[in-house]
Design brief:
Elements: H1 6-9, H2 11-21, E1 28-30, H3 32-39, E2 47-50, H4 54-63, E3 67-72, E4 77-82, E5 85-91, E6 93-99, E7 102-107, H5 111-116, E8 126-127, E9 133-134, H6 139-144, H7 154-160, H8 164-175, H9 184-192, H10 202-213, H11 219-227, H12 230-234, H13 243-253, H14 259-266, H15 271-274, H16 279-292, H17 298-305, H18 307-321, H19 328-337, H20 345-348, H21 354-370, H22 377-382
Parallel strand pairs: 2-5
Antiparallel strand pairs: 1-2, 1-8, 3-4, 4-5, 6-7, 8-9
Helix pairs in contact: 8-10, 8-11, 10-14, 13-18, 14-16, 14-18, 16-18, 17-18, 17-19, 18-19
């Protein structure tokens, strides 16, 4: 199999490969760029594996007029910038000793050794600069079957980094076959080590959950997380019963997947803190949860919170209450989001001032919203 596409044929990228190969070393694309290219998905980040040591990569890049940036020397990684495009170049490695997230590694000259220290077989695929795919661990078969499988012993892979428990579900959500389900051996291993998720930083857990919930349909993965004790370990108090209906409503209405909306459907105790969400994400999550359980009308949701948030709340209500979603409400909320109260404080002065002015303005706003935004300025002031 040979890969093609703008990402691999780009002169800037080929210049990095040529720089390494002309120095007498291997340059192999690896990981996500190869996986996504085979699947026909977009390629965003370019990772290159090589048997050249980092100091050699730095020297070769400088001699070739490229910009080497020592972004991860402790991991054997140098970022080589070519025509403003970053390329992560990492030396082949093999694990000497592993403990949790950390590992003692040694450089290697064997691509198979480098492949065996990765997480899943579908991520252990390489490609030469001409696009020829190298498959040292039969990962191509698993990728084509959309089977997320740990490399060799699942428990050993998990002990190397317990975040791989969440990555297992995230990769299934994005690349797995929902009909075939998750790999049984992998499921058993993650269930065994679910209690070790508490060893991870909340930032790493939060980032992984957000990526998982950004998948087109994360519901099967989330249900599997619940079944094997992973969901309660990361989000105690959560309930995934609303996720599948929410995804269905999103797809029915043609609405783009959004992780905080899905997180609001899950709920849970202290979610924003447990996942170290940003201030903006935390504020949005709290708003969605609050309004999803309110009786605020579709018109008022659009007017007060905007079209996107208004529709999100209505989607959540339908999912959590297990009732159909009416796509026509999207247009109604969008119309309400553009509405502007025709009365201003100046219109009520000097008859009203201070707190009385605010109360009167709120009364008129309520009448105007309840009218479907139909009452005019004169009608409101005459009332």
């Amino acid at each position: 199999m040979k890969l093609t596409g703008d990402w691999i044929e780009r002169p800037a990228t080929q210049a990095v490969c040529r720089m390494i190969e002309q120095g007498g070393y291997q340059a192999l694309f690896v990981g996500g760029c190869v996986r996504n290219a085979i699947l026909g998905a977009s390629v965003n980040d370019i990772d290159i594996a090589t048997d050249a040591h980092p100091e050699t990569v730095i020297s070769l890049a400088g001699a070739a007029g490229l910009k080497p940036v020592p972004t991860g020397l402790e991991h054997g990684t140098v970022t080589v910038v070519s025509d403003h495009v970053p390329h992560e170049v990492t030396t082949f490695r093999r694990d000497v000793e592993t403990f949790g997230r950390h590992a003692v590694v040694a450089y290697s000259e064997d691509v198979a050794e480098d492949a065996r220290r990765r997480d899943f077989t579908m991520n252990a695929l390489y490609a030469r600069p001409d696009g020829t795919v190298i498959d040292p661990l039969n990962g191509l078969r698993d990728l084509q079957a959309r089977h997320v499988r740990f490399i060799d012993d699942p428990e050993q892979r998990i002990r190397e980094d317990y975040l791989r428990i969440l990555r297992f579900f995230r990769f299934h959500a994005w690349y797995g076959d929902p009909v075939a389900g998750l790999d049984p051996e992998g499921l058993g291993a993650v269930a065994t080590h679910a209690d070790r998720l508490s060893d991870l930083s909340r930032e790493r857990v939060g980032a992984e959950i957000v990526k998982l919930l950004s998948a087109p349909d994360p519901a099967p993965s989330v249900a599997a997380m619940r079944a094997c004790g992973v969901l309660v370990a990361v989000l105690p108090g959560s309930d995934d019963r609303g996720v599948a209906p929410l995804v269905h409503h999103e797809q029915q209405a043609g609405i783009t997947p959004e992780p905080i909306r899905r997180l609001a459907a899950l709920g849970g105790d202290g979610v924003a803190d447990r996942l170290r969400l940003s201030k903006a994400q935390s504020k949005r999550l709290a708003l969605l949860r609050r309004e999803a359980s309110s009786i605020t009308s579709a018109d008022e949701l659009g007017y007060r919170h905007g079209a996107e948030t208004g529709v999100d709340v209505l989607l959540l209500r339908s999912a959590l209450l297990e009732v159909p979603f009416d796509p026509a409400l999207c247009a109604r909320v969008a119309h309400a989001a553009k509405a502007t109260l025709p009365v201003t404080p100046h219109d009520l002065m000097p008859a009203y001032s201070g707190p009385a002015l605010g109360m009167r303005l709120a009364e008129l706003e309520r009448r105007w919203i309840d009218s479907g935004f139909r009452l005019s300025r004169d009608e409101l002031l005459a009332g």
